[in-house]
């Protein structure tokens, strides 16, 4: 996994590990209700993007890995991109494993039967499960709402990270956005268009904490060579796009971290 640029315990001092330490800090502050506003279900975090290929799965895995390194947290990574389940595959989990969809349709009665323990002691994975023609309806069902509430409430130390489908490709992501407390929106530098980002954020709504994670940032020849991540967050309404991405929220700015990777 290290070769793929994924945060691992074997490389705790890597540049990418340092970047995600900065990215996760405001997320954890919201979970602990230390941010500017009280956030409902703040430990339910959706990682998404406007379109495929912008780095959401890579970011979701790294965020989950980084959160699992916290001393007082356990993490569940949910592969909620049910039509293109890559998160579990990246972690070496068989794509035939039963998972979220199987549990929601009732094929698996016990949630513990579909949770997979990874080699990281504090990280478990809930795979997407088998393809289902009514996946959107299952994600919008009362079973899903009950599951989300159970995941949020059962363990006080648990953080749940959802690798969601892109917002402009399927309707599942908009359904998930209504159930989580925080959204990490991945934006690919020099790839994601202004229009796509603005359209996607409209699907999320104005009452969610949205973090913009700017990735694939190539540094100029005069600066450090490599890629970087930027992370800023605020409420959905008022996000703007111009010379780079920026926040223009009605609320005071809650915080921002800028970090670089060599």
UniProtKB/TrEMBL annotation:
This is non-specific protein-tyrosine kinase. GO terms for molecular function: ATP binding; non-membrane spanning protein tyrosine kinase activity. It comes from the Bacteria. Pfam families: AAA_31. NCBIfam families: eps_fam (TIGR01007), pepcterm_TyrKin (TIGR03018). Belongs to the CpsD/CapB family. The keyword Kinase applies. Coiled coil: none annotated. InterPro entries: AAA_dom (IPR025669), Bact_polysacc_biosynth/exp (IPR050445), P-loop_NTPase (IPR027417), Wzc-like_C (IPR005702). Residues 45-204 form the AAA domain. It catalyses: L-tyrosyl-[protein] + ATP = O-phospho-L-tyrosyl-[protein] + ADP + H(+). Its EC number is 2.7.10.2. Keywords: ATP-binding, Kinase, Nucleotide-binding, Transferase, Tyrosine-protein kinase. GO terms for cellular component: plasma membrane.
């Amino acid at each position: 996994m290290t070769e793929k640029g994924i945060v691992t315990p074997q490389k705790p001092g890597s540049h990418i590990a340092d970047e995600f330490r900065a990215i996760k800090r405001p997320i954890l502050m919201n979970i602990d209700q230390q941010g500017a506003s009280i956030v409902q279900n703040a430990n339910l975090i959706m990682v998404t993007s406007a379109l495929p290929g912008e780095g959401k799965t890579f970011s979701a895995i790294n965020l989950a890995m980084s959160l699992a390194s916290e001393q007082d947290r356990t993490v569940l990574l949910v592969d909620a991109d049910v039509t293109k389940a890559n998160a579990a595959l990246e972690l070496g989990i068989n794509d035939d494993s039963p998972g979220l969809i199987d549990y929601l349709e009732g094929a698996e009665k016990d949630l513990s039967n579909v949770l997979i323990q990874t080699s990281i002691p504090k990280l478990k994975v809930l795979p997407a499960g088998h393809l289902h023609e009514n996946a959107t309806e299952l994600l919008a069902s009362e079973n899903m709402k009950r599951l989300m509430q159970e995941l949020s409430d059962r363990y006080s130390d648990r953080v749940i990270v959802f690798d969601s489908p892109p917002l402009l490709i399927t309707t599942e992501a908009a359904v998930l956005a209504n159930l989580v407390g925080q959204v990490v929106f991945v934006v690919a530098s020099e790839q994601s268009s202004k229009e796509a980002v603005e359209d996607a954020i409209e699907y999320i709504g104005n009452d969610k904490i949205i973090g913009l994670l700017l990735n694939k940032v190539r540094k100029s020849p005069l600066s450090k060579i490599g890629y970087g991540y930027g992370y800023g967050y605020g409420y959905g309404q008022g996000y703007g796009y111009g010379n780079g991405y920026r926040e223009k929220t009605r609320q005071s700015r809650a915080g921002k971290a800028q970090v670089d990777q060599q």
